[in-house]
Write a structure and sequence with these properties.
Oligomer: single chain
Radius of gyration: 21 Å
Helix content: 55-70%
Distance between the termini: 76 Å
Structural class: mainly alpha
Shape: elongated
Largest sheet: 2 strands, antiparallel
Strand content: under 5%
Strand order of the largest sheet: 1-2
Length: about 220
């Protein structure tokens, strides 16, 4: 059957709208992918990346496992989409008042990275644990490393932008905004890694206090 006569073979085999638990309720393709992403969170939290199987993800959701294979061409394809999914969640969850001054916005962005937004399922640190597991795997995966690099550049760039704005408004001293953005971003990553890998639960709070004392205060224009 040609695509013009009745859609692709893939579409014929499985409709983009899947049935839940065999009932009458259906969910859209977009909603189904969200269900799969959340199931992937649960499966990764239980099994880790190395031992994760597609069937483990299927067992974490009410939809049939075939739905996963309809949307993704295997574990790697799914993990790539999942990585972009969790990054999009964090980049889209920073809420700063449009009238906020640079001091307030800078602290809000740092707090977002260190303490995270609220999610209905899984805490910020549950999600960061999964994020960092994929992060460590990126050293052997060029495609995933590129995704993380782009995310890192956007995060650092958002800090640089706020610092530059503060300099222009005369709130911050005339510092190297690029270097300052690099420092703040590296402190964030180090604190999150220390908490996750070493179990130092006070790392984010201590990092935040240190940034208050040694970074944010040093930025203040005193003249």
């Amino acid at each position: 059957m040609s695509e013009s006569q009745g859609g692709s073979a893939k579409e014929s085999a499985e409709s983009p709208s899947e049935n839940v638990d065999g009932g009458d309720e259906t969910v859209s393709s977009k909603d189904t992918k969200e269900v799969i992403m959340e199931a992937t969170f649960r499966a990764l939290s239980k099994h880790g990346y190395k031992d994760l199987r597609m069937r483990d993800i299927g067992e974490e959701m009410d939809l049939t496992r075939q739905v996963i294979h309809y949307h993704f061409d295997g574990k790697y394809d799914l993990m790539s989409s999942f990585l972009e999914h969790i990054i999009d969640q964090y980049e889209g969850s920073v809420v700063v008042d449009g009238d906020a001054d640079p001091r307030t916005e800078l602290r809000a962005r740092v707090d977002q990275c260190l303490f995270g937004p609220e999610f209905e399922e899984f805490s910020h640190w549950d999600r960061m644990k999964v994020y960092h597991e994929l992060y460590t795997q990126a050293q052997n995966d060029g495609d995933h490393r590129e995704v993380f690099n782009e995310h890192y550049d956007r995060l650092r760039g958002s800090i640089v932008e706020v610092v530059e704005e503060g300099i222009e408004e005369g709130v911050f001293r005339d510092v190297d905004a690029e270097r300052m953005g690099q420092l703040v971003t590296d402190v964030i990553h180090a604190a999150r890694g220390r908490r996750i890998s070493l179990g130092h639960e006070d790392a984010p709070e201590e990092a935040r206090k240190a940034m208050d004392e040694f970074i944010f205060e040093s930025l203040e224009r005193t003249e």
